[in-house]
Amino acid sequence: MVPLGTALLQPELLSAAAQDALRALRLEAASANTTSSYQSALRYWAAWYWLRYGKAIALPLAANVVLQFVADHGEHLSEQGAQSGLPAELDAQLVQQGFKGKPGALAHSTLVHRIAVLSKAHSHQAMANPCHSAEVREALSHLRKAYARRGMLEQKKAALTRPLLEQLLATCDDSLKGRRDRALLLFAWASGGRRRSEVAEARMEWLQQMGPGQYLYDLRLSKTNQSGAARPENFKPVVGVAGAALALWLEAANITESAIFRRIFKNGKVGDTGLSALSVNNIVKERCALAGIAGDFSAHSLRSGFVTEAGRQNMALADTMAMTGHQSAATVLGYFRAEAPLANKAARLLDAPTDP
């Protein structure tokens, strides 16, 4: 049977329509934040390449180009002190054109992210990947070790443990905004330290009421379950003070479907769509400011605060991981902050009485 009116495809070639469809699926699968950060990184690569080489960027790039990028944006020690390899005039142009926030070396995390984005761009087009070369891997290893010796690696966000969280909650009054923020903070913290994207994407369709002020939230999509697979561990309890706060917010805002946490307009009207991940982050920062809590806090501080508090209270690691959704015990331990190990009983062996 020969299809009528349809051009036959070649099995060794992927049609343009199929390429477009697969590209659309890839963009849809990625979160808005991820897509935005990738686009920003690629724009920076294009601008830097144009200034450095005088022509438009075209993949694949040579490994030497990536090494030049590392040398230009990483900070190294010289007789003149710490400096990056990017000429001052080019650096100034990147800042003036809005591609950089400030002159000088990039933060280590930013530099690594931009190389990771370039690597992914090569992988998507099935091109030889310069970021996988031994020379680039070695340069990045040397950069990290050098930064570590100088104490320049980024510190993790401060943890909002229970005492600090309670200070934030004390700033939430009985207004509509106060009820929303109280419910949001408690939902994110008490259900296992939800990521800001998970809070922003929380929906009523995934929330089951088990009793007055008691809920089970089905975490359909997460960083560790991006395929939306149905798993028993998807269900996170929202009970106690967190469940009570959520019930008050839903009743006050008359929310029965769609997004759980929404924007509140100046006229007091509740929006129809959910908050953005950035808005969730801003709410945490605003509540920290109202509570007079100084420090580098963000929405991620709720997640690290939950894990840290679990460590302080000697909760079983398996129980903590069941709530957070982590697959690796090493990753969970990485969230523990300096105060959590102080609760470790093994640190007080000399305090225990011994038999004569």
The neighbouring-strand order within the major sheet is 3-4-5
CATH homologous superfamily classification of the largest domain = Intergrase catalytic core
The share of residues in helices is: 40-55%
Mind telling me the CATH class of the largest domain? Mainly Alpha
Mean pLDDT: 87
At CATH level 2, the architecture of the largest domain is Orthogonal Bundle
CATH fold node name of the largest domain: hpI Integrase, Chain A
Task: Sum up the overall morphology in one term.
Answer: globular
SSE string, helices as H and strands as E = HHHEEHHHHHHEEEHEEHHHH
Please tally the helical runs, counting DSSP H or I stretches of 4 or more residues: 14
Distance between the termini: 93 Å
Number of distinct beta strands: 7
